[in-house]
Input
Amino acid sequence: MDILTEKSSMRRAADRWRAEGRRIALVPTMGYFHEGHLSLMDMARKAADRVVVSLFVNPAQFGPSEDLARYPRDLERDAALAEARGVDCLFAPPAEEMYPAGYQTWVEVTDLAAGLCGASRPGHFRGVCTVVAKLFNIVRPDVAVFGAKDFQQLQVVRRMAADLDLPVEILAHPVVREPDGLAMSSRNTYLSPEERRSALSLFSSLELAARLVREGEREAGRIEAAVAAHIRSAPGTRIDYVFVGDPETLRPVKRLAGPTLLALAVWVGKTRLIDNTILEPCPTGPMRAD
Ligand code: AMP
Output
């Protein structure tokens, strides 16, 4: 596996593969790999001949009071894990390579990025879209794989690719969870053992909501209230949002009439965690992850 840090060498490697007729997949990440990231790499491996994983803790998607400085990093460990998963190239540029002096161009998706995490983290999706657009231009992948764990990000990136006519297919991987249900996240490393227990309330509240829907509940407000009460009962939690709405438009709904997104953002101590599921009011439908 190659580890590249310069845009020019990354572009050359991708150009060479394209000239050989290889199909290229890109998995954008911020590193500190867990099984969620590695499952995206497996999906990329199946979808293409060459897999590029980008590892870039993107300063542009962190707010001034967020965890950019303490975000976990371990390039050596990540490189070993990616190589073991059959990744061909790890692209790990320094910040100056992506945002050199004089940088002043940004990519912004409007409506889809306005609510949920976009409301709590102003500028976050502008940073995400900008870096993802740049990565698409450097690597020019045929496919790119994103996790449904960051559901809004997935939909915002899909919108950006469609709106900017970027010739890349976006694939979604379902949320990968710990055995007890907690969604895997690099930020889980911040949690103390007590916080780790409280963090499980996110997943158990999704299960609670799915059960309510199975039992016939269709009122979004009642589902939101039950989910919020469940999360509040776990020590040290503070809800950022509990959202029930349309998975495509990310607009809230009052009643569930089809597959509906339930998305959460919750502070557990000083750590902000997100999770989501698709609620299926139709009794025959299986749980959908994307
Ligand atoms: P990150 O390094 O956190 O920016 O994540 C990189 C990619 O991995 C994004 O597309 C995330 O949605 C995806 N991802 C992170 N955690 C998970 C998870 N638990 N399940 C599925 N995808 C994930």
Observations:
- Residues 2-173 form a domain with the Rossmann fold fold (CATH 3.40.50.620).
